[in-house]
TrEMBL record:
<dbReference type="InterPro" id="IPR029752">
    <property type="entry name" value="D-isomer_DH_CS1"/>
</dbReference>
<keyword id="KW-0028">Amino-acid biosynthesis</keyword>
<dbReference type="Pfam" id="PF19304">
    <property type="entry name" value="PGDH_inter"/>
</dbReference>
<keyword id="KW-0520">NAD</keyword>
<dbReference type="InterPro" id="IPR006140">
    <property type="entry name" value="D-isomer_DH_NAD-bd"/>
</dbReference>
<dbReference type="InterPro" id="IPR002912">
    <property type="entry name" value="ACT_dom"/>
</dbReference>
<comment type="function">
    <text>Catalyzes the reversible oxidation of 3-phospho-D-glycerate to 3-phosphonooxypyruvate, the first step of the phosphorylated L-serine biosynthesis pathway. Also catalyzes the reversible oxidation of 2-hydroxyglutarate to 2-oxoglutarate.</text>
</comment>
<dbReference type="InterPro" id="IPR006139">
    <property type="entry name" value="D-isomer_2_OHA_DH_cat_dom"/>
</dbReference>
<dbReference type="InterPro" id="IPR045865">
    <property type="entry name" value="ACT-like_dom_sf"/>
</dbReference>
<feature type="domain" description="D-3-phosphoglycerate dehydrogenase ASB">
    <location>
        <begin position="326"/>
        <end position="443"/>
    </location>
</feature>
<feature type="domain" description="ACT">
    <location>
        <begin position="455"/>
        <end position="518"/>
    </location>
</feature>
<feature type="domain" description="D-isomer specific 2-hydroxyacid dehydrogenase catalytic">
    <location>
        <begin position="5"/>
        <end position="314"/>
    </location>
</feature>
<dbReference type="InterPro" id="IPR045626">
    <property type="entry name" value="PGDH_ASB_dom"/>
</dbReference>
<dbReference type="Pfam" id="PF00389">
    <property type="entry name" value="2-Hacid_dh"/>
</dbReference>
<keyword id="KW-0718">Serine biosynthesis</keyword>
<dbReference type="InterPro" id="IPR036291">
    <property type="entry name" value="NAD(P)-bd_dom_sf"/>
</dbReference>
<dbReference type="InterPro" id="IPR029753">
    <property type="entry name" value="D-isomer_DH_CS"/>
</dbReference>
């Protein structure tokens, strides 16, 4: 009997054809109410969805025959991943399926701005013929600055090079070798802001990228430069952008995404002629919608017929004994990866995960995978998990090393994560007390005992009296409450280190104030 596939969201006729031609029995039932879906799901081996069908734990309980769920698209928020994993159901998505489409919109925005297409259209429709006013610029020979060269940014690089642009890029998570393969020169962010004639943003919204383009950055851009954001709302300070356009400092800007969607009708940008926008339609082309549908159909067919797993986003089960031993360490290791990512120099090229002590006896692949999840999460938009993180790290040219040693002097088991890049390395280690209490026990050369959770300020300073008092006072004045403190110093007492768990995220002004305190060398805000 052939496997049965239920298509419960609008895929595409081509996708259905792919499934049928693969010899699968396909039922297309779009828009079923949850009860109706629950009533029939027990008869299917595979479920294909977009974002409308909610694949809940309750639905999965009835899905006694289900082996795989395919989501045509990236986000899998509509699927209860834990419940699917517990039931041994593989969940797949189609990352990168709309990259060409989004990159083309970014390019259209740049072309449209250079040639004033939207403003000129409005002018002609208003009965005017303003040839002089709408004299534009050529793309050819201009410098494009791309911030983030992942799935979408790298397609834009390719297209821009073909249009004879000089392309520079900033992406702290791509090795120069990987960038060279794309035909792009990696530069520091300051250089990109200063040199680019047009800038296009293709980064996820993270703590580092929120408000990345603020008034200060806009002021550093070339006079007449263009800015395009088809990534996420919140990366650009929209009010500062309106000011930079109104003053004539920027030549034009285009947004497909807004901090608040839809934006309010009195948005300050709407009054600016050199501002162009679209209603978050970056991924909306017939081709992209069809491409992700066909991709998921091919993935489902390959899995059902040959057992080939591609783009799985949930974790295959491990033997229970192994899981019991690893389970307390997995959240710790994810935090170690995250901490190392936030402390590491730009452009990490190598990650080493070292397990010492009792834990060295169990398979360590899940630990290194989980460290990569914690690390990559700071840079990537794609949902990450133990299955895809190692493959993504490899694709990005990152070497991953696993080291184990039976001896651990101070702890029953200790896991160390070291991230190396062009600018140096960051090394962090942690342990778990009594199966539950995770602790960071080393940050670079400093031994400590810190709780890896929430907002953290790390500070390196000269080992001099009064430094910690000043830090406490400055934080108190700023209304930032310290929840826990772990202090450490080097044996020769040249440097000291503080790991402060705080109740709220310190703003940039607070961090700047801390950096200006006497004897303070380095201050960083971390979120774990
Ligand atoms: P991706 O994860 O493949 O690539 C993101 C890249 O940004 C990575 O290479 C990463 O190393 C880099 N990066 C992370 N932090 C950075 C930083 N601080 N500075 C510079 N680079 C940094 O993601 P993608 O699929 O290319 O998507 C890029 C963006 O486009 C995301 O924000 C995504 O939500 C957005 N997107 C928008 C639409 C739309 O409809 N407009 C559609 C799809 C995706």
């Amino acid at each position: 009997m052939s496997a049965r596939v239920l298509v419960s969201d609008d895929l595409s006729p081509e996708a259905v054809k792919v499934l049928e031609e693969a010899g699968l029995e396909v039922d297309v039932k779009v828009g079923l109410k949850p009860d109706a879906l629950e009533a029939i799901i027990g008869g299917y081996d595979a479920l294909a969805v977009r974002s409308a069908t909610k694949v809940t734990a309750k639905l999965l309980e009835r899905a006694t025959r289900l082996k795989v769920i395919g989501r045509a698209g990236v986000g899998v928020d509509n699927v209860d991943l834990d419940a699917a994993t517990r039931r041994g159901v593989v969940v797949m998505n189609t990352p990168g399926g709309s990259s060409v489409t989004v990159a083309e919109l970014a390019l259209a925005m740049i072309l449209g701005l250079y040639r004033h297409v939207p403003a000129a259209t409005a002018s002609v429709k208003a009965g005017k013929w303003e040839k002089k006013k709408f004299q534009g610029h050529e793309l050819s020979g201009k410098t494009l600055g791309v911030v983030g060269i992942g799935n979408i940014g790298s397609v834009l690089v390719d297209r821009a090079v073909a249009m004879k642009m000089r392309v520079i890029a900033y992406d702290p998570f791509i090795s120069p070798e990987a960038a060279a393969k794309l035909g792009v020169t990696l530069v520091e962010l300051d250089q990109l802001w200063a040199e680019a004639d047009a800038i296009s943003l293709h980064v996820p919204l993270t703590e580092q990228t929120r408000n990345l383009v603020n008034a200060g950055v806009l002021a550093r851009m070339k006079r007449g430069a263009l800015l395009v954001n088809c990534a996420r709302g919140g990366i650009v300070d929209e009010r500062a952008l309106a000011d930079a356009l109104a003053s004539g400092h920027l030549g034009g800007a285009a947004l497909d995404v807004f901090e608040k969607e839809p934006p309010p009708p009195d948005h300050p940008l709407f009054a600016v002629e050199s501002f162009v926008c679209t209603p978050h339609i970056g991924a909306s082309t017939e081709e992209a919608q069809s491409a992700v549908a066909v991709a998921i159909a091919e993935q489902l067919a390959a899995y059902l017929q040959k057992g080939v797993v591609k783009n799985a986003v949930n974790v295959p089960g491990l033997p229970r004994e192994v899981m019991d031993q690893l389970a307390p360490y997995l959240p710790l290791v994810e935090k170690l990866g995250s901490l190392a990512a936030q402390l590491a120099p730009a452009g990490p090229t190598e990650v080493t995960v070292e397990v010492a002590g009792e834990l060295a006896a169990v398979p360590m692949r899940p630990l290194s995978a989980r460290a990569l999840v914690g690390l990559l999460r700071h840079f990537l938009e794609t949902p990450l998990n133990d299955v895809n993180a190692p493959a993504i790290a490899k694709d990005r040219g990152m070497a991953v090393r696993e080291v184990r040693s039976a001896e651990s002097h101070d702890y029953a088991s200790v896991v160390t994560v070291t991230v190396r890049g062009q600018g140096g390395e960051a090394q962090v280690a942690g342990t778990v007390y009594g199966k539950r209490e995770a602790r960071i026990v080393r940050v670079d050369g400093f031994r400590l005992e810190a709780v890896p959770e929430g907002h953290v300020i790390v500070c390196e300073n000269d080992d001099a009296p009064g430094v910690f008092g000043n830090l406490g006072t400055a934080l108190g004045d700023a209304g930032v409450n310290i929840a826990r403190i772990s202090l450490s110093r080097q044996e020769d007492r040249s440097r000291a280190f503080a790991f402060l768990n705080v109740d709220s995220a310190p703003g940039p002004e607070v961090l700047e104030r801390l950096r200006r305190l006497p004897h303070v060398r380095v201050v960083r805000a971390i979120h774990l």
